[in-house]
Amino acid sequence: MTNEQNQSTFQIPEWVDTVSPSLYTLKAMPQDENVFCRDVDPLAMALKLEANARHKKEEWWVWSLLILPDRMFALISVTPNLSSQMSIANFKRFTDRTLKINWRRGFKEIPIEDQDALEEAAAYVKSRPVERGFCETIENWPYHWTSKDFAG
Questions:
Q1: 56, 52, 59: which is closest to 90 by C-alpha?
Q2: Percent helix, strand, coil in the chain (nearest 5)?
Q3: What residues make up the domain containing 133?
Q4: CATH code at 146?
Q5: Is position 74 within any domain?
Q6: How many helices (H) and strands (E) does the chain have?
Q7: What is the pLDDT of residues 95-140, one digit of tens each?
């Protein structure tokens, strides 16, 4: 899927247009506890760094990444060279081993079919901290990033 507005700012790899993105939800255990967003040394920043590493290696194209206290939403395209199941499993295994994150088994995947659905999914992700009462506006939530934050 092409995002012309983003293309003017940075280069989207050609393979991104050949795969449909998906919205992934990964949950930590224990559920409903603040696992990722503690004030001191938040795991959220470490998760962002790992997502950024996968983005730079072109394993993922990150459209939007959101970390909430007990879950992560990743709106991403996964390279056609790797199945999405394998890519997410590798991410969870690596972050479990290096960051000691106890992930809940499995993950939720919602395939995104077109540009309108991509924009709708991005709006949904962006709205979660406000809707869950973690902040008044998305600008007040420090753990939300878009493709622009992963460029370069």
A1: 59
A2: 40, 20, 40
A3: 16-150
A4: 3.30.70.1290
A5: yes
A6: 5, 5
A7: 999 999 999 999 999 999 999 999 999 999 999 999 999 999 999 9
